[in-house]
């Protein structure tokens, strides 16, 4: 199975690209959706995080958004502690997820994650796509979601510098204001990926 990682910062158009792949009949997956499923299905993870950060972190099976964001964006020490608990569990479930797809006979999957490089999971993928747009457009898109400047700065800062990873990706899809260009580049990328399946 060809595993393709799709990455890029918040507001860079990853969801738009993913939807194009999906409409073309490609199997797609999202790291955030997998994480949400893990929180629901893995009581060990919930216990470990509750032990570290207090029982008030969760409401039901899911972390309270504001409290999780405070851990991830406001305190580097707490973010490190969270990562040491969460990611070993996440990677275990991620591996099982890909094994399940392969057992189903899926030939290729496009997996979207903003943090492929930051969490060190990029080497799991056969090819990596980077969604890229001017920072001014990125900020404008995120502002339209109603986020405040300080929060945007923290999120973008936590996602790393695209210029540091561009030499490690196989495809760059531009996601500025020209949606047709993005669509064309995505379809061209899909053609190149499909060639790999028949080699």
Please describe what this structure looks like.
The chain has a five-stranded parallel sheet. The chain has a two-stranded antiparallel sheet with strand order 3-4. The protein has helices spanning 14-23, 31-41, 43-53, 65-74, 76-103, 135-143, 149-158, 179-197; strands at residues 2-7, 27-30, 58-59, 62-63, 108-112, 127-132, 171-174. With 199 residues, the chain is of the alpha/beta class. Helices cover 54% and strands 15% of the residues. The chain is built from eight helices and seven strands; from the N terminus they run E-H-E-H-H-E-E-H-H-E-E-H-H-E-H. Helix 4 crosses helix 5. It has a single domain, classed as P-loop containing nucleotide triphosphate hydrolases (Rossmann fold, 3-Layer(aba) Sandwich), CATH 3.40.50. The protein is globular and about 50 Å long. The model has no long low-confidence stretch (mean pLDDT 90).
What does the secondary structure layout of this molecule look like, with pairings?
Elements: E1 2-7, H1 14-23, E2 27-30, H2 31-41, H3 43-53, E3 58-59, E4 62-63, H4 65-74, H5 76-103, E5 108-112, E6 127-132, H6 135-143, H7 149-158, E7 171-174, H8 179-197
Parallel strand pairs: 1-5, 1-6, 2-5, 6-7
Antiparallel strand pairs: 3-4
Helix pairs in contact: 3-5, 4-5
Question: How would you concisely characterize the structure shown here?
Answer:
This protein is α/β, with parallel strands linked by helices and 199 residues long.
